[in-house]
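::Encoded backbone::
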Amino acid sequence: MEREMDDEEDCPELIPIKEPAIKDNVEDIQSSNNFKIPVTIISGYLGAGKTTLLNYILTEQHSKRIAVILNEFGEGSALEKSLAISQGGELYEEWLELRNGCLCCSVKDNGLKAIENLMQKKGKFDYILLETTGLADPGSVASMFWVDAELGSDIYLDGIISVVDAKHGLQHLKEEKPSGLINEAARQVALADLIIINKVDLVSQAELMKLRTAVCAINGVANILETQRSRVDLSNVLDLHAFDGVSGKSLQQKLQLEEEPRAHLDKSIVTSTFEVLGSATEEDLNVFIQNLLWEKNVKDKKGNPMEVIRLKGLVSIKDKSHQVIVQGVYELYDLEETTVKWKEDERINRLVLIGRNLDNDILKALFIATVTKREENS
């Protein structure tokens, strides 16, 4: 149970809903913001501090009109004190509007139609935060937004955040699951673009370093923030651009600093990263990725199929002057050209794969073969 609030003063303050004022505000927002609305998924184990983070964002003074979508209102949470409104079969069941213009609601259906329906009722927002339940797989939620973006939706996936409890996080990551199943806490860390280690004031520096080491072993490319009571600089949490070409430059810097792969506690989930010089055709690159993500016919030395949870990278495609960012979550992946141009003698592909049974040598050899195949054909 997430109960980190000191007292009632932390509860969001409710104000009466005035429909005309909302509509006026919406028209102003829509006239000035003719772009898609970013969605950030916030995951984390039970008690890590997700609700506290959301309460903080909802009550903090900022210039954004943020909608927070909750799978459910946690028992004992300040969010319980929302307005319970009967919507007569609508897809959202509870909502409240705050003095800083933010909106908080509980959605019965995580589908995009529920969120788009909410926007039609209450107008467009500057930002949407979606909280998943403690054991939920953020990857499946992310996939839903990603696919819909191709269908012309006016919302897009900005990034995945995982909140980790500094005191109990290591215990959660160590928890053994039945054969074939992935530890939920480890999965959430593996999929994250930003990891917030919360409650750092409750552990020693040595304990914190153990947890950081375990987290970095699972996900070597996510940014890590250390916090107390989920207090974060919102500029570090919003507008991550983790799934689009804007992140190309920062990703390149991050990949250049990434070290050799390190094994997770139970050696099941690892971060594998490698660099290969050269260019591949888009067709050959798609074959390489699809064999990994779709066909799952790439195996380690023991014959186990490699299971990719998250894929990130910058690749060089023949006849393209700009760097291309590749993003993957489970079976879904996307290639997007960035604004960064290649220097012809520095076309270095950098890939990061997070998953199980990953063999760095085999993966690198396969990618080298993909690049070499293009050279042989030409």
Notes: Residues 1-34, 72-93, 260-266 have pLDDT under 50 and may be disordered. The longest helix spans residues 360-377. The chain is about 30% helix and 25% strand.
